[in-house]
Write a structure and sequence with these properties.
alpha+beta, 3-stranded antiparallel β-sheet, single chain
Length: about 300
């Protein structure tokens, strides 16, 4: 199945893989769970060796709907059910939570959901903050929650790493998972702190002047070429620089052109929408991962553009 997507639901535009159930309005958690095909649970069973003996210290995570084994985990691993993930997000955000997309990857081994939060103004733009939550049932990773602000006018992600506020929180599946989920609630319930920090950061960036020579120097750092670079590497770097400049001169960035915020938004546009130079099989799925973890190009461009300015 395309991009390893097993099931999902989405609102608005069809996702990158062209799969999923389209719903006209963002549903609440109970309906989102059903539309996304996540209305199943995971049970734990012993792991046996070839002679029928139980292997101590391990358990298998088994999906109840089809008895498929999602992963072999240590016996300290505690399952967080899909419904609990939605309840966690409901409690975290509070109020009438609506889900824009949710689903499972890799045959149910990983699930995700994305919930919309109240809109904010950042540097004069409308920005929609989203809360992203991922959970694995195969032991490959823990629970992860993060803030992902999206600039409405151009649908660019602004998931910048800020020194002033935490954007991401993760935890392992261990005995104290319930206590740690409460810690996550306490931390991410202050999500407005991140948006306030982003607004302050954006204002500083929008007021920091960058000349054409500065932008050129930033591009040289983002897409370097050395004497040892091959002709192919030189051509790729030049193409990336040209694509960046197309983004930099886009109409929605016009009023920020000549500022650090313009450079950051151009880098975000490039990272969010430009096609990869090597369109590998898992590119789209990896790009989704970068929404959660942050994108190196965006963070590096922001650091270069804001050099000498406190974040």
């Amino acid at each position: 199945m395309s991009a390893n997507v097993e099931t999902m639901m989405y609102v608005r535009q069809k996702p990158w893989h062209g799969l999923g159930t389209n719903v006209p309005e963002a549903p609440a958690s109970a309906d989102a769970l059903r539309f996304a095909g996540l209305d199943w649970t995971v049970r734990q069973e012993p792991v046996f060796n070839s002679r029928g003996g139980i292997i101590p210290g391990y358990k298998s995570n088994v999906r109840d709907t089809d008895n498929s084994v999602l992963g072999i985990v240590g016996d300290r691993y505690k399952v967080v059910q899909n419904a609990d993930a939605f309840n966690f997000t409901d409690d975290l955000i509070g109020g009438d939570v609506r889900y824009e997309t949710a689903g499972s990857l890799r045959e149910g081994r990983t699930i995700w959901l994305l919930a919309k939060m109240p809109e904010h103004r950042v540097a004069g733009d409308n920005v929609e903050p989203y809360l992203c939550f991922t959970n694995s049932h195969d032991g490959s990773g823990g629970l992860k929650v993060c803030m992902t602000p999206i600039r409405v006018v151009c649908n660019n992600t602004l998931n910048l790493a800020l020194g002033s506020a935490k954007r991401i929180w993760s935890m392992r599946h261990t005995e104290n998972i319930r206590e740690r989920m409460q810690e996550a609630r306490d931390c991410l319930a202050l999500a407005d702190d991140y948006m306030s920090g982003l607004a302050t950061y954006a204002d500083r960036a929008a007021n920091k002047t960058l000349y054409d020579s500065d932008v050129k120097a930033i591009l040289n750092e983002l897409f370097p070429v050395t004497e040892q670079s091959s002709p192919r590497e030189r051509a790729t770097a030049e193409k990336c620089r040209n694509e960046f400049m197309v983004c930099y001169y886009a109409p929605d960035i016009r009023r920020f052109r000549g500022t650090a915020w313009g450079v950051i938004n151009a880098a975000s546009d490039l990272a969010t929408h430009s096609m990869p130079h090597r369109n590998t099989k898992n590119y789209a799925e990896n790009n989704w991962g970068r929404i959660m973890d942050g994108h190196a190009i965006i963070d590096k461009a922001a650091k270069l553009a804001m050099a000498g300015v406190a974040a």
